[in-house]
Amino acid sequence: MTMAQLPYALDKYAMTSRRIPTNGIELNVFEAGSGPLVLLLHGFPECWASWGPQITYLLDRGYHVVVPEMRGYGESDAPAAVAAYDTVELAADVAGLIEAYGEEPAVVIGHDWGCTVAWHVAWLHPEKLAGIGGLSVPWFGRGEVPILDIITALYPDDYFYITDFQRPETTELFDRDHQETLTRVMRGHMDMLGQPADERSFLERITMPDTPVDFMHQDFIEYLVSRYRFHGFEPPHNWYRNFTRTFERTAAHAADVITVPAMYLTGTGEWTVELAQSLGIDELALFSDLRVTGLAEAGHWLGQEKPEWVNGKVSEFLQTIDY
């Protein structure tokens, strides 16, 4: 995959990549620009280039943009142990990355799992941050029991993808054909998440639209597929296999709220917000300094579906930050 084939015109920007030691591993990072440091954290099943519309926007406005391939993704290290992927470790990766740059404090913005990691950085390492932002997934706090226990109680075993991802055979299915897997997940309809399960697999239950999703461009899908050739889906699925371990390791922070200046953006079709509300969680009450919020008519892939809206909100938030 050459730089000329990068999506979102990223090849027009002088982005470089290098591996940086952090928290006992090395993360491969893509970066460009100078100025205040902004880290963008991707989710599942994404890659660093998922942030393309935001990368170009921030570079054009004078920020130092750093986008790591998260632990287990792309050319970053992928430890073999399942326990190496609990969210405490993932947050420590990011905190160590900020320290390695020597540009503290930084702003960190995440999407999907990257959003969850970002919230944990703010929760566990607030001294590293000037600001924190999350797209799509709300901050649930620690709660009284691990989130997997709640999901298992709410949904039958084959009903919900998080329980499905606990199984080795699900990973094997995802790894059979990365092109097919990523096309279905990134372009398919996820209405099946709220429907009773049947004998079909998670991937088979995703329905495909008659016409391609216009914001999920084919050049992005092709580039995304290329980043999964390094480790496949075992490491990313391991992120989902550590809810209990993360819960156990964060007991000392159970009563803590996020005090870092924060931004939270989501879409009307975001199922994780519905889950939080069904559990009686007020996701906005777990912050002491929530400066920017936004709700768009959009689904889960917020930064790609509504790039201009997201970029405007990010700009609004960054203007409130005192680095």
Automatic annotation (TrEMBL):
Biological source species: Pseudohalioglobus lutimaris
Name assigned to this protein: Alpha/beta hydrolase
Domain AB hydrolase-1, residue spans: 36-305
Gene3D superfamilies according to UniProt: alpha/beta hydrolase
Phosphoprotein among keywords: no
SUPFAM superfamilies (UniProt xref): alpha/beta-Hydrolases (SSF53474)
Keyword Mitochondrion found: no
Molecular function GO terms recorded: hydrolase activity
Residues in the signal sequence: none
Keywords: Hydrolase
Domain of life assignment: Bacteria
Lineage start: Bacteria, Pseudomonadati, Pseudomonadota, Gammaproteobacteria, Cellvibrionales
